[in-house]
Specification:
The protein has about 280 residues and is an alpha/beta fold. It is built from 10 helices and 11 strands. This is Sugar phosphate isomerase/epimerase family protein.
């Protein structure tokens, strides 16, 4: 297992310090991290920055494993649903410029006054159109289990199968299942044939945690391997299944983000030593 680092792992640091994408990549270079996930939310001026970022990654041997967008198809407004589709399709040339063909996408959030079936219809319709265009562009869309509409393994599987395109696969986020009261070890089995991208994330139960599940459990972000996901066994299951995509770290704890990242990479080091693979 070789970790990539999502820029989201440093989102508090980035926002507090006004970091650019280049600042994040400079941090990675200094830490010896050579694979990353970038997100559209962090551009300050994409038109100006993109060429510089692409050049920096090439010159410093940093691979962009994936590019992530935050689309939301759940709206009664057709204009907003079209805007969500454009957010995805606008990512295609950016991803290609960065050297990746994997674009992480969302489904959307459950809003007041909208029921599940209605939301599901909009999600399937929007992702069907996005997947059609992704096929033409040579892009793989990876739907993350996130929120109450596509948070459980069965929900993600249903959406992927209803869309019915090889261009729509799963981003298996190891931690997010806990936030919808599902064990990751149960969620992984139906999704294994569809997983094309993995977010390595850990949460632990905490009485004052910031994240509350529908069942009332509260969680806080943790260093990889120190939470309740049973992360090592999930990775073993992915490896046994032949998964060959990226393992992208998303640290979401409240401690110093750089230290949380270093601790998570130490977990990956130990996993690889245990499995005889050496340093990732």
């Amino acid at each position: 297992m070789k970790l990539s680092l999502s820029m989201w792992s440093l989102h508090r640091t980035v926002r507090a310090g006004g970091w650019t994408v280049i600042d994040f990549l400079s941090f990675c270079r200094k830490e010896g991290i050579d694979s990353v996930e970038l997100l559209n939310v962090f551009w300050q001026n994409q038109a100006v920055e993109l060429d510089e970022v692409a050049r920096y990654t090439r010159e410093n041997g940093i691979r962009v494993a994936s590019y992530a967008v935050g689309n939301d198809f759940v709206s009664a407004s057709e204009e907003k649903r079209l805007a969500a589709l454009r957010e995805i399709t606008d990512a295609f040339p950016v991803a290609k410029a960065l050297g990746t063909s994997v674009v992480r996408v969302f489904s959307g959030s459950l809003h007041p006054g909208i029921d599940y079936d209605q939301a599901r219809g909009w999600i399937i319709s929007g992702l069907s159109e996005a997947a059609k265009l992704a096929e033409e562009a040579g892009i793989t869309l990876a739907l993350e289990n996130h929120g109450q509409l596509a948070g459980r393994g069965g929900q993600v599987k249903d959406i992927i199968e209803q869309v019915g395109s090889k261009a729509l696969r799963s981003t298996f986020d190891t931690g997010n299942f806990l936030l919808v009261d599902e064990l990751p070890s149960q969620a992984i089995e139906p999704l294994l044939p569809y997983i094309a991208h993995v977010h390595v994330k850990d949460f632990k139960r905490h009485p004052e945690g910031r994240y509350q599940s529908p069942g009332g459990q509260t969680f806080e972000g943790a260093v990889a391997g120190e939470g309740d996901t049973r992360l090592a066994s999930l990775i073993e299951r992915l490896e046994a299944s032949g998964y060959a995509g990226a393992y992208v770290l998303e640290y979401e704890g409240t401690d110093d983000e750089a230290e949380g990242i270093r601790g998570s990479y130490a977990f990956a080091d130990e996993h690889n030593r245990t499995h005889g693979e050496g340093r990732p």
